[in-house]
Amino acid sequence: MARTVKLAPSIIAADWTRLAEQLRECESAGADYLHIDIMDGRFVPVITIGAPIVEAIRRLTDLTLDIHLMIVEPEKHLQAFIEAGGDIINVHAEAAIHLHRVVQDIRSHGRRAGVCLNPGTPINSVEEVLPDVDQVMVMAVNPGWSGQKFIPSAIGKVASLRRLIDEGRYQAEIEVDGGVKPENAAACVAAGSDVLLAASAVFNAEASIGANIRRLRSAVETNARLPS
Ligand code: DX5
Ligand code: ZN
Description:
By secondary structure, this protein is of the alpha/beta class.
């Protein structure tokens, strides 16, 4: 039996003037999570949005909110994003000096904890917290912008992480973020990814949100990974 892959549209590429409508399209197309990119202009060059907008989005949808904190000192802002309604709070291993404490803190509030790895960061930097996290996000681009090219070495990284998680019998899911398209989605899943995240492959002028989500899903379902 093949693993069911979750799809997480990232609203960074959405039409913000029609956000409510676009969220409904994501829901009807069967999106599993809604990914929200929080950028602070320090950890990454760009500034996006903060907790008040997440709180507004929370009122627009029941989708699981997957909050990607691309910010320095994430420990200072956890509470705000938890109170805003985030379901999964992801922090970068490069930004959290006390990663273990941050993960415990997120979980102590009943939220799912995720850790993210930049393309240049090895998986052993999260090895010690693997038993304590709900997901690991493998970045397939250097964070900061939507629409960048997928870095192929992410596939090998996902595969190595899959082995570590399976060998340790941990529950953490693997999410791939950046440059995910129908053309590389199957390879991500074959390597062991559980959640595929996509912004420009979902929100674009070429097709509707629904058609794009269905295209991604059929790309992974026709090439679904067999259990090991
Ligand atoms: C990268 C963000 C992503 C990204 C996805 O900094 O974390 O979520 O914008 O965009 P696409 O899918 O267009 O690469
Ligand atoms: Zn992201």
